[in-house]
Design brief:
The complex is a heterodimer of chains A (114) and B (115). Chain A is built from no helices and twelve strands. Chain A has strands at 3-5, 10-14, 19-21, 24-26, 32-39, 46-52, 59-61, 64-69, 74-79, 88-96, 102-104, 108-113. In chain A, strands 2, 5, 6, 10, 11 and 12 form a six-stranded mixed β-sheet that branches. In chain A, strands 3-9-8-7 form a four-stranded antiparallel β-sheet, with no helix packed on it. Classes of the chains: A mainly beta (114), B mainly beta (115).
Chain lengths: 114, 115
């Protein structure tokens, strides 16, 4: 079965702290794609990153970084020096190569306090 | 370039009423889909379409109908609204998601309340 687990329902941090959002996925497929989306309080879904299963390189984009580890089926997201504007719900999602269906995790609500 | 446009943004229905949520995209994407978002459950796929004239069921299709007569439009119909359909609905579009390094573009969402 294919599944995405975001075990952290809610995380609260103080501004400038680093925070890591966990994502564990399940699939038997060898080719798949992983995504992170951000949903700010305004409600829209904002694409952050897409990673292909054959590319295990970590990625850094400004204060955001992603750690993809196939050995542990994890695709964790770290925000360095968090800011209040990072407050949002973050979703991890899985797409299998032979379907066009995005499977979402339940999301992690991040609250960054000033 | 409008991207994905959903209407309406908010809607209140009485139990048993029917309505159509509209979704339009101007990016010539083949793939379009509808999700519902409920607290603690993430986003769940209702129906999707890989091109005009082709639709298929997702994870939670009961109570919803779709059609895809054009590439641009993918309306979602609630046949007889029930309180369990109270949710936030998102429409998304993309090129075939596995065909290139692409993302799914989401609409702004429709908050539906069934009383």
């Amino acid at each position: 079965a294919q599944k995405v687990t975001q075990a952290q329902t809610e995380i609260s941090v103080v501004e400038k702290e680093d925070v890591t959002l966990d994502c564990v996925y399940e699939t038997r497929d060898t080719t798949y794609y992983l995504f992170w989306y951000k949903q700010p309080p305004s409600g829209e879904l904002v694409f952050l990153i897409r990673r292909n299963s054959f590319d295990e390189q970590n990625e850094i984009s400004g204060r955001y970084s992603w750690n993809f580890q196939k050995s542990t089926s994890s695709f964790n997201f770290t925000i360095t020096a968090s800011q209040v504007v990072d407050s949002a719900v973050y979703f991890c999602a899985l797409l299998l190569e032979d379907t066009d269906k995005l499977i979402f995790g339940t999301g992690t609500r991040l609250q960054v306090f000033p | 370039n409008a991207g994905v446009t959903q209407t309406p943004k908010f809607q209140v229905l009485k139990t048993g009423q029917s309505m159509t949520l509209q979704c339009a995209q101007d990016m010539n994407h083949e793939y379009m889909s509808w999700y519902r978002q409920d607290p603690g459950m993430g986003l769940r796929l209702i129906h999707y379409s890989v091109g005009a004239g082709i639709t298929d069921q997702g994870e939670v299709p009961n109570g919803y109908n779709v059609s895809r007569s054009t590439t641009e439009d993918f309306p979602l119909r609630l046949l007889s609204a029930a309180p369990s359909q109270t949710s936030v609905y998102f429409c998304a579009s993309s090129y075939f998601q596995t065909s290139m390094n692409t993302e799914a573009f989401f609409g702004q969402g429709t908050r539906l309340t069934v009383v």
